[in-house]
Design brief:
EC 3.7.1.2 (chains A, B), eight-stranded mixed β-sheet, hydrolase (chains A, B), 2 domains, about 25% strand, Fumarylacetoacetate hydrolase, domain 2, alpha+beta, globular, SH3 type barrels, homodimer, Fumarylacetoacetase (chains A, B)
């Protein structure tokens, strides 16, 4: 499988005429070419579709591309052809064109997000959180059969850099008689990637697992902010609601599935686990449906001069693949549309140090973490800046980065 | 409170120059004036914003109104002024203008629905369903404190008349070892009203209970189709997902809150129940936040010549008011936007005959209902047409109807 996904645009030796794209530390080498929506900072121009290259942005307005959702709706062969054209435009030796420095740009959400669904593919997260919420019953019996997911709120998805007000909500401590309405004292992050849907399917027309890649456009970083004191009181029986929908932060960049092709790995399931039902399984899927993408959580409190990395994980720990969540979502005929966003759920690794949330890192808020400057944290305090980062690396390929997914918590 | 909401547009004696609007049986007398999105059937014209009057539609294109979401975004004083202008245009004695017969029209969703949330305000439904899903624990402890809700799927909301394919999904009978993927055998309806949001609020800026009416634009009928065999296996811990998102049907008409003003009734809570927390309570709210609106479920199987009414309920049975669900939804800062849709949840009455779902009417599928032609049903079979109806009536006022909310189940 792998070979047919790779072409000259993945060649690690290829260089760009944009010097910063050739810096080994850049998130955006010539091999990445992520999409964004940007304008010159402080201007009132409409936002434009752009492509990141080094520390610059290529404006696609002149290419007649003014709506990224329309690009997403195109078949994968056309998306790949566009990648080739972008590569040819930016490769070393091509005539230089005008670019916009990222430092002079401001970003909007990269596309219109019709519906947002958040999955729960991190089994280590599901088990750790389940242990806190349901000590007797941490991993529910459906988890290893059903790619569990729920609908999220589209309106409150914001782009990296947007500050979010600490939510108020109903909280009922276990020993209290009645709930109180007050500012949340347990604001948490969740380390996720978000998958943007490509063409999608019509209502009533599911697709098979081997067609799922056609409907995957690209990935973004996603922080599913959570109010851990609101969540346990409200979530039964219909799932998380106000504990989640006060804000979801994504990075400005969509890294395409084509850029990530070198980092595919086999999708395996432990032999002792239930194997996926036939509609979520195929030989081609097993061959390369998982991804090796490093994920990180960073924190900078108002008293810190530099952020600190709180944990490192990897998308390879997801129990369900991106193709499986796409296929499952549409398996009942639900229509997916270009620009819809599917969160992976919190991707924690098998050890506590690889936790994708403070809830896990602090064992439900009981074990504070100590920061390099001596401060401690269980959950986020006002003014704290939480950032997610991701990158994919592999011997023989250029490193692909995802940019920044940062947010600051404002007082209630 | 009531008086200030009523004006000459509620006068039962007022007549229209549109003869069919003066028929006592019409859903759309001069006092209603519901909005829709329509075009001449079979044409390829763009859809237009219209207002129902008797069996006709007034096209608002000539009024410069081409986007109902923009109307929804206006303050309530402007929405009321528009109602006055519509009333003056259609009242007896005003110059006649061209209308489009409803029989010659086709309808789209009345507006763009950004986010769709479904609440669970029917306590009799919650208790009856809870008893089936959790015999030991039918009404969870949070129910009487939190207006429970969950995010639904916007993309699969369809207008009345759209046929829906029976979904496939994972089903695990309690005695089976492993789940199977197959067509749902337990397709059900849910009798709801949907509230369309008016201006809404910015992210991070909640509003108080006494400002909630400002953000309520109008009501539509809503059938939250449900696959009762998919639901129990998938819904823990994150709530309903594929059991619901294969389709949600709404009527083409939005009946405005202004039209419903005469049918407001006091919001009362049994003295033995917890009273709402202060953010969901006020004297003005208690005065008239509930509504007396009759609701009905109708079924027509392929062998029947006439539909039969399966049950009758009333919105007065909702445990949480429309103002409370709006206020609660935004209480954490979540931004509501013009055209967002908030379902009430299934509104069942206190007796089984007033059940808003087949699940309740048939006691979890164990007691089939017998139809007038001798057929029986537990859940819906292929070809069955399920319809919802609603109307508000009160001595001294014209009856206000909601039009039709019909759907047919196609084979998987």
């Amino acid at each position: 499988m792998l070979d047919s996904r790779l072409d000259h645009t993945h060649d690690a030796a290829a260089l760009s005429w944009v010097a910063s794209a050739n810096d080994p530390a850049t998130d955006f080498p010539l091999q990445n070419l992520p999409f964004c929506s940007f304008r010159r900072a402080g201007s009132l121009e409409p936002f434009r579709v752009g492509v990141g290259i080094g520390d610059q942005i290529l404006d696609l307005t002149g290419w007649g591309i003014t709506d990224l959702n329309a690009v997403m709706a195109r078949p994968s062969a056309e998306r790949r052809a566009l990648r080739h054209r972008l590569f040819d435009t930016l490769k070393a030796g091509a005539p230089e064109v005008e670019l916009v420095p990222q430092a002079q740009a401001e970003f909007a959400l990269p596309c219109r997000i019709g519906d947002y669904t958040d999955f729960y593919t991190g089994i280590h997260h599901a088990r750790a959180v389940g242990k806190l919420f349901r000590p007797d019953n941490p991993l529910l019996p459906n988890y290893q059969w059903v790619p569990i997911g729920y609908h999220g709120r589209s309106s409150s998805i914001v782009v990296s850099g947007t500050k979010l007000r600490r939510p108020k909500g109903q909280v009922k401590p276990p020993d209290a008689e009645v709930p109180v309405f007050k500012p949340s004292a347990r604001i948490d992050c969740e380390l996720e990637l978000g998958l943007f849907v490509g063409p999608g399917n019509a209502l009533g027309e599911p697709f098979g697992i081997d067609d799922a890649d056609e409907h995957a456009f690209g990935l973004t970083l996603l922080n599913d902010w959570s109010a851990r004191d609101i969540q346990p009181w409200e979530y039964q029986p219909l799932g998380p609601f106000l504990a989640k929908n006060f804000g979801t932060t994504i990075s400005p960049w969509i890294v395409t599935m084509e850029a990530l092709a070198p980092f595919r790995i086999p999708f395996t399931r432990p032999a002792e686990d239930p194997q996926p039902l036939p509609y979520l399984d195929s030989p081609a899927h097993r061959a390369d449906a998982a991804f090796d993408i490093d994920l990180e959580v960073w924190l900078k409190t108002p008293s810190m001069t530099e952020p600190v990395c709180l944990s490192r994980s990897n998308l390879r720990h997801a129990y369900w693949s991106l193709a499986q969540v796409l296929t499952h979502h549409a398996s009942n005929g639900c229509n997916l549309q270009p620009g819809d966003l599917l969160g992976t759920g919190t991707i924690s690794g098998p050890t506590q140090a690889e936790s994708g949330s403070l809830l896990e890192l602090t064992v439900g808020g009981k074990q504070p973490i100590t920061l390099p400057n001596g401060e401690t944290r269980t959950f986020l305090l006002d003014g704290d800046q939480l950032g997610l980062r991701a990158s994919a690396q592999k011997e023989g390929f250029r490193r692909i980065g995802f940019g920044a997914c940062d947010g600051v918590i404002l007082p209630a």
